[in-house]
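Case 358 in the screening queue. Each case pairs one protein sequence with one candidate compound; here the compound is pyridoxal-5'-phosphate. For every case the pipeline is the same: read the inputs, emit a complex structure as tokens, and attach any notable structural observations.

Predict complex for case 358.
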Amino acid sequence: MTSLAEKLAPESIKKLIPYQSARRIGGSGRLWLNANELEQGVQYNSADSDYNRYPDFLPHDIAKAYQEYCETDTPAVAVRGADEAIDLLIRTFCKPGEDKILITSPTYAMYEFCADALAIETLDAPLLAPDFSLNTDQVIQLASSASLVFLCSPNNPTGNLLKRDDIIKVLEGTSDKALVVVDEAYIEFELHSNLVALIKDYPNLVVIRTLSKAFGLAAVRCGFILAAPEVMQFVQKLIPPYPMPDCSAKIVLDALSTQGIKIAMDNTQALIHIKQTFVDAIKAQPWIETIYPSSTNFVLIRTKQDVNLFDYLKKHGVVTRNQSHESALHNCVRITIGTQASMLEVADLICQYPQTSL
Ligand SMILES: Cc1ncc(COP(=O)(O)O)c(C=O)c1O
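Case 358 output:
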């Protein structure tokens, strides 16, 4: 017999395959290098206090601290992670069953997932160039039938920064048609390339940020939307009444203090150095086809066809992300850059392949 829930659930939800987050995939291992987190946590000083009152609606002190960090007076709003920002923007600007979003695959899977959940069609202008750069003409052409264009820069899982001139071309080509949402989750690894200052000239630009990556606060759940006032007025209508738990808010304020920012920037520089040392240590392996240039805290590695790097590392307790399910990323594995000790271990394992292979 059909259950009530079965009868009530919309077709779009029945068809939906849950987003395969690193935590949902689970598994076992010693080194967890599959979710682009900061492997070694940062201690902040937030003092405990009472939690009997509801938190601030749109915590202004956090938004102000983030604007100062970005050196901008463009409106910013804090949300529970960049994932909530993606969902919120789609719910705000797309009519279910009618409107479309545009992505440039391979890219972060949550754009399409959030759209699917709302019965919003996803168009794709794939990154077919060897350096995964944008096909701007196709993006502009398809954007004429989309409400939101999601560009991820630096892109997950390919690691490349999209060219500023290409993004400007897309902004100009879509100015009266679509909002262009640039997801800068990894921008701290190439901070000078950030696009926040462009919002003043291009009011169809929306920037998404997170404290989950360079700031090492994935468990705190804090992200940001930066957008022109005319965009923000609609986003704020749908924002949940109490978007940020107070205990998270306190940690966020510590992280965005002068000292907190310095810690994050120093960690970022150290991580960039570890990444380069790791790449140098493995690049001579004859079975590695490409180590893609990365403006992030991960590297994407393409191996020769008969090599199964993902399973090999897993067998040795190292959990990475297999990207082979994407047609453009056959034989590709994404490895988060962890601590120096972890990466030395992973590099050693990689250099021992195939002698100790499966
Ligand atoms: C490109 C991109 N955007 C957004 C997110 C989600 O970030 P948050 O933890 O802030 O929800 C991720 C997480 O991996 C990501 O890679």
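Case 358 observations:
- The chain is about 35% helix and 15% strand.
- The longest helix spans residues 258-282.
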